[in-house]
What does this fold into?
Amino acid sequence: MGFAEYLGSLAGKRVFVVGAGVSNTPLIEALLGAGVDVTVCDRRMREELGAAADKFEADGAGLRLGDDYIDNIDADVVFRTPGLMPWNDCISAAAANGAVITSEMEVFFDVCPCPIIGITGSDGKTTTTSLIGDILKNEGRTVHIGGNIGMPVLCKADSMNKDDIAVLELSSFQLISMKKSPHISVVTNISPNHLDVHRDMKEYVDAKRNILAHQGNSDRAVLNLDNAYTRAYAGEASGETVFFSRCEKVDNGVFLKDGTIHLSQGGCTEPLMKTSGLYLPGLHNVENYMAAFAAVRGLAGVNAMQKTANGFSGVAHRIEHAKQLRGVRYYNDSSASSPSRTIAALKSFDKKVILIAGGKGKGVAFDELGKAIIAHVKTLILTGMTAWEIRESVENAPGYDGKPDVHTHENLEEAVIAASEIAEAGDIVLFSPASTSFDSFRNFEERGEAFKDIVRKLGIRDWAIRSRYGV
It folds into this structure.
């Protein structure tokens, strides 16, 4: 069944779409274009939705807005936005009354005509997704990248061909209710994350596990052997299990030995490339490369892997080099919304950095981050709701002797200016928040762009001062 046929199957049914954000807006437009009876539900008020609300109504949608937007849902089909858990009382009540609860991504799995590679994990999934997409493109394949990144893919399904490949980043929020699995499922790693939304760590781990729960005998699971959670998933994979590892040699997969990444299959090992030739820094990125190589084996050759590895410049907001100013390098790692991501970023550099961190918490402890900060940070600059939690994790960490110096500032702009005033030629300023953006920004992309804009203005200010005083 294609997407057009699916839309036809909704004739005469009442469809509620919960959330009028980026992923659901094209879906709403497609439903309305097919003459489906649609009600758009969103927590935001009409003035916040602005022109989008006017357009939805002009196209024939009903609106339910404000705090009671999902109370007493009376629908045949409900499209759940990823951030709204399926066990939510209102969603559960709708299901009990006979509504089919689904999502844009679940329907895509039903109508997609081509093989799907799905990538999840606590860290590294966006970089790994992008690497896989680039390798396949360098092999000459037609690739559609989406899911938790890029443009929504559901409305493009009917333009896809059976020989194409869909490469999807999948979050725990999307996976928790999935009833199908990708043909190739990749799990980069698992560590505590999103515990402000999930009921407990077990639910989070089980949601990630769901990426391979519905695989068949001909499918592939790509797992991180070095992570206890993902290693345990191997016993549940129905098809081929492929491991990647920085620490151990594996018989079927990808591993690192003596600074060289090797491919292995059926007892045969082939050196692929030295890590010194990888464009992206850090051992965590070595893992991302290995996960990608393991995923595309059989779909792309060594030449495509090597070409991608040598030229892939990374993804925006992930240890992205923002600017060099008077000998100081500024890096934007705004996507680091968890302590583990920031720890990985700190370990990517061969010297201590000036770290800017803080934001809104996820219910995850900062104890390990405190230890990493002592080891890898020369000056710590904090802002946002988690500033005091991060500060306490440093001050309570074993071996803390008053270093690094810790400064707290009201907002991101003040924090960046403070870092620029402290930094000297040769220093690295790393913006890696270890927290979400939602205390001050809509998402990590907006936060990262704000950081880069502040740094850009630093350059303008610096140029103006030097011009004025002739220095």
Observations:
- The chain has three domains: 3-102, 109-311, 320-469.
